[in-house]
Amino acid sequence: MSARHRRLLTSTVALLGAGVMVTACTGNTPEASSSGGGGNNAASSNDDTGDTVTIGFSAPAADHGWMAQITAAARAEADGYDDVDLVVAEGTNDVSAQIAQVETFINDGVDAIVLLPFDGAALTPIALEAMQAGIPVINVDREFDDPDAARVTILGDNYGMGVSAGQYVCSQLSDKPDAVVAEVAGIDSLPLTQERSQGFSDALSDCGLDVDNRVAAEFTVESGEEVTANLLQAAPQIDAIWNHDDDQGIGVLAAITNAGRDEFFMVGGAGSANAMRSIQAGDSVLQATVIYPASQAADGVRLARLLAQGKALSDLIDVEVPRQITLSAPVVTADNVDQYIDSAFES
């Protein structure tokens, strides 16, 4: 079994846990646990109001749609519980400021911390301090350097996202063995970008294709437009483009329109509502997008509540909350967009 397929198998197993979590973080009684679960979404004892828990939440600045939805979804999830007091720190891209926020949570003695670090490596030491102080940390999206820095890690499937995009491109270009494929990546220094690119490359190699032209942006509209303009000048003929992020994709599409290019199709990333509306309308080269869930922090709030109240997932036999959950990365096209658009974020 290849390394890539081992990784996909791991993601699939983790996804089973994610599905359980989303459908029913409920029931902590022996009767609920032994009944097998998974057959319905009926409320159970975990939905009942328990001891009030204080959860600290910190994430980067909401400087684009996906990140804004991360915080909005976390707030909405907390509002659904009478026994959750969510303390939301101001979003920041300043590592020192985010470290100070976590220090404040520790000093205030919160019951749990949900943390989407601007830089996972830089936030690892302070997360370790929180764990050592007996405060469970739920690490969202960008991993810490040390697994002991988090009680639970919730991740989108970045590698799987690249694989999904690559497999879709392969399916559309099966009759073009010499097709030219381009890639507009995100921030190249981030492991998540590297994983997305690796998954994309691995999937393309399975159908005999590779990435012929690649540029990296910064997950912003402006950077997306700038690097795509350069890409289009360097590549006079393209058959497919994968853009890692639908927020920067607004700029990517603007550059494509300005260049008057339409000989290729494009696959987006993250799954924004505006991208899905364009897919529905068929009004641009954008033909599909790959979901990167903006629900991760909301799931983190739900798990933080369970951990602080000493509960577990009802649909699992295990009496402990899992240590890692990886969410799925499905491809959205005109054929299935109606299933996803209502929960999509606005860029």
TrEMBL record:
One of its GO terms (cellular component) is cell envelope. Gene3D superfamilies: 3.40.50.2300. Residues 1-24 form the signal peptide. Keywords: Signal. InterPro entries: Peripla_BP_I, SBP_2_dom. Residues 29-55 are annotated as: Disordered. Residues 55-311 form the Periplasmic binding protein domain. GO terms for molecular function: carbohydrate binding. It comes from the Bacteria. It is found in: Cell envelope. It holds the Pfam family Peripla_BP_4. Belongs to the bacterial solute-binding protein 2 family. This is Ribose transport system substrate-binding protein. It comes from Klenkia soli.
